[in-house]
Write a structure and sequence with these properties.
TIM Barrel; 334 residues; alpha/beta; twelve-stranded mixed β-sheet
Length: 334
């Protein structure tokens, strides 16, 4: 049977979108100070969250009709999603099977890494901002560093490769660990990535003066390592450098000071089924309502294309036109 090739998901600036971020829950088992208050947030009620069947259907439409080729599972903390390996297996088994990855805090990876790899997950990004036990507890308000380190080892041993570590340096908090985190990643065969902090915290306390820029990160690394530029992959958010004399690669995502909006190929689906054409979008398209209202695949495709048609040229952080999204990062999904 002939199956038509998907028509690419293109916005008005000619950007082709092939990367879908799917948030599976807004819940998290950490309370990172730069992300949410100590008491947590008002979580979505279970009926508001997309079911497994709904997630699978939307990803099927995205891959078969819109040309999505990679799907990253996010949260909140995606490992809190019940039956996650089974959901991964269903996504992997789709006719236009996407490359599946996940961003996680690493807690729970030690017991799930093998099952996730066997289900079809390819790789993981683990958020880790410090290697100091006391500082980890201060930042996350939880004493779980040993669990994260165990999760990293389990992911590597399960073949979820490359295992990437994501760290957000904040001035006066953990910026003195830029070199130490990199050395740790090199020693254990992980890939280190630093991300400039962004105005996506729940309490609106982001301070650009406390953001450690990509240039400063590279200056600090350059004092200890010889960095050899790696050719940037099309639309990849991270600029990467190889540490001379090794196979180790370190990356920097400069979302604020070196925005890559002109080549953005990402679209986001929140845990409650809202489609966002930008991480900093101030409007959403309600795919959950369409699903539960009986919409067919053609209607879902149309809603997706209409949403992307309204995508702007960039996030405009630092300009008078910038508007913070109403949702924090934990509710949007990385």
């Amino acid at each position: 049977m002939y199956v038509a090739a998907p028509v690419p998901l293109v916005d008005r600036f000619g950007r082709i979108h092939t990367d879908l971020r799917v948030s599976l829950t807004d819940r998290c088992n950490l309370r990172c100070a730069y992300c949410m208050p100590a008491e947590g947030l008002n979580w979505l009620a279970r009926p508001e969250v997309l079911t497994d069947d709904e997630v699978v259907r939307l990803v099927r439409v995205a891959t078969e009709r819109l040309g999505i080729t990679t799907v990253r599972l996010t949260g909140g903390e995606p490992l809190l999603r019940r039956g996650l390996p089974a959901l991964v297996a269903r996504l992997f088994a789709l006719p236009a099977s996407p490359v599946l990855s996940m961003t996680t805090n690493g807690i729970g990876l030690a017991r799930t890494a093998v099952a996730l790899r066997e289900a079809g997950l390819s790789r993981v990004n683990v958020s880790l901002d410090t290697l100091r036990t006391d500082r980890f507890a201060e930042i996350t308000r939880r004493d779980r560093l040993p669990d994260v380190l165990a999760g990293l080892r389990a992911a590597r041993d399960a073949g979820l490769s490359p295992v990437k570590i994501n760290a957000v340096p904040v001035r006066g908090v953990n910026d003195d660990e830029i070199v130490g985190l990199t050395a740790f990643a090199v020693e254990h065969g992980y890939r280190m990535r630093f991300i400039e902090s962004m105005p996506l915290d729940a309490h609106g306390a982001w301070d650009r003066d406390r953001m450690v820029s990509a240039a400063e990160i590279l200056d600090r690394l350059g004092e200890h390592y010889e960095l050899v530029p790696v050719r940037r992959r099309d639309n990849a958010p991270a600029e990467e450098w190889r540490i001379a004399g090794t196979d180790a690669v370190v990356g920097v995502i400069a979302s604020v000071t070196r925005p890559f909006c002109g080549g953005c190929d990402r679209v986001r689906l929140t845990a409650d089924g809202q489609l966002r054409n930008c991480l900093f979008a101030t409007e959403e398209s309600d795919l959950r309502a369409l699903l539960r209202g009986g919409a067919d695949d053609e209607a879902l495709e149309g809603a997706w294309r209409n949403c992307l048609a309204g995508k702007g040229p960039g996030h405009a952080i630092g300009s008078t036109e910038f508007r913070r999204p109403k949702r924090p990062m934990s509710a949007i999904g990385g």
